[in-house]
Structures are given as C-alpha cells and as structure tokens.
Amino acid sequence: MISIDLTGKTALVTGSGQGLGKATATRLHKAGAQVAVNYFPDPEGVNKARAEETVSELGERAVAVGGDVRDRSSISAMFEKVAERFDAIDIVINNAAVLRDRSIKKMDHSDWDAVIQTNLTGVYNVCKEAATRLADGGRIVSMASISGFVGFFGQANYSAAKAGVVGLTKVLSKELAKRRITVNAVAPGVVLTEMGKSIPDAARQEMLKQIPLNRFGEPNEIANAILFLCSPLAEYITGQTIHVNGGWYA
C-alpha cells in the first residue's frame, strides 16, 4: 500500500479559512503536515474567526496567521511568523482569490484592480517571498482555474489573472529547479464552494452540460490533486497545470 506521509513538513495555505483553501489545509494536515492557515485580516474579523475555527478543527500542528497577499510587507511578516512557529517552510499553496464578475462594458477599473492584485500579483508576492524562504526540495502549488483556459463571459479580470498564474508557474519551475523546488498549478472546474455557489443557477446549469462526468467538483477532490503534487510521488513533476474539472475542456 502506498500512502502519502508529510510528517515533519510545514505547509502555508493562503486564504484557507474556508472553501478550497480549508479543504487543502485539512488534507495536508491529515497527511501529517504542520499547517499555517492564512486569512485576510478584514476589519470585521470574519476571516480571522473562520481561520481560527479551522485551526480548532484541525487541532495540534495548526496555526492561524493573518496576511494580505496584496501587501508585500504583510506577506514577509506572515512568513516570518510561520517560520518562528514551525521553523522551516516546505510547502506553499497559493489559494487566496476574489471574484468581481462583470462584462467589460460594466467592469469598473476597481473591479479589474481588485482581482488582478489578489489573484495574480498576490501569487507573485507570495512566490517571491517563498523563493528565499522555502527549504530545498520544497513545493509551490498555485490555484489556477478552468476560466483561465475557457474564458467565461464576464470574467475578463478573473480569466486574465488565472492565465497569468499558469505562465508564472512555468517560469518559476525553471528558476527554482536548481534547488529541487517544484512549482505547479491546479486548475479546477466549477467546484461547490461558496464562490462556486455564487454563480447564478441558470449559468451553472449551462456549465453542467459541458462536463462529461455530469457533476460539479467537490473541494476535497481538488485538495487531493494538491496533496499529490506536494508529495514525494510528484517530485519529477514541475511547471505543469493539472486540470481537475470532470473532463470539461474548451
């Protein structure tokens, strides 16, 4: 029997108080990793509460840590806190993301900026810090999306950001290869998280028609692919985007 054991490894998962991030943090933790559950420090404290709830559910070997992926000084401080708590950092998962869907005629510049700054620049910021912080042989996995390949109506900002993540992944896989750090992306289809459920029902039904497996994905199914890429089983895989979408392609 082959099992995945990440005992002794430390993983940082951005935006992991809920949804895909929480599912990923939980999977890595169950595999034995120490996990830092990152949250965006909103004024109301909602994200912090969710992250702390996730940590409470995980139990030992987990800690909640605030950090805004758009803010480079905030990211540096976040990495420092994780390193102080767990020493070396071995795995970084770029999951934090936002949606601001509108057709380009109706899209405000603020809608574009918010998505690009979080979903693309935020990934760059985290990867730049990770490049100097990660232990040799580490793992970076970033969340791309089927939207970056298909290009859904009303998602010029989101599609552009996720396509950018794919390109960034390819470049960093070459730049970090000397230290045996693998860099990959996972591109989910529609997944039934809070974000996925926010898609209007009529639009979701049209999307469902494009999926050969005839159902939407579950968070754990995406987390399983990420777990694999973080494991020794995937040590010769880098620069790739793994599509987890039930067979839906453009």
Give a brief description.
This protein is α/β, with parallel strands linked by helices and 250 residues long. Helix content is 45%, strand content 17%.
Annotated CATH topology: Rossmann fold
What is the chains' assembly state?
single chain
How many β-strands, per DSSP?
A: 7
Given this structure, which CATH class is correct?
Alpha Beta
Sequence of strands across the biggest β-sheet: 3-2-1-4-5-6-7
Q: Domains counted in the coordinates: how many?
A: 1
Write a structural description.
The chain is α/β, with parallel strands linked by helices. Helices cover 45% and strands 17% of the residues. It has a single domain, classed as NAD(P)-binding Rossmann-like Domain (Rossmann fold). It has helices at 19-30, 46-58, 72-86, 109-133, 147-150, 156-175, 194-197, 201-208, 219-229, and strands spanning 10-13, 34-39, 62-66, 89-94, 134-143, 182-188, 241-244. It has a seven-stranded parallel sheet with strand order 3-2-1-4-5-6-7, sandwiched between helices. Helix 3 packs parallel to helix 4.
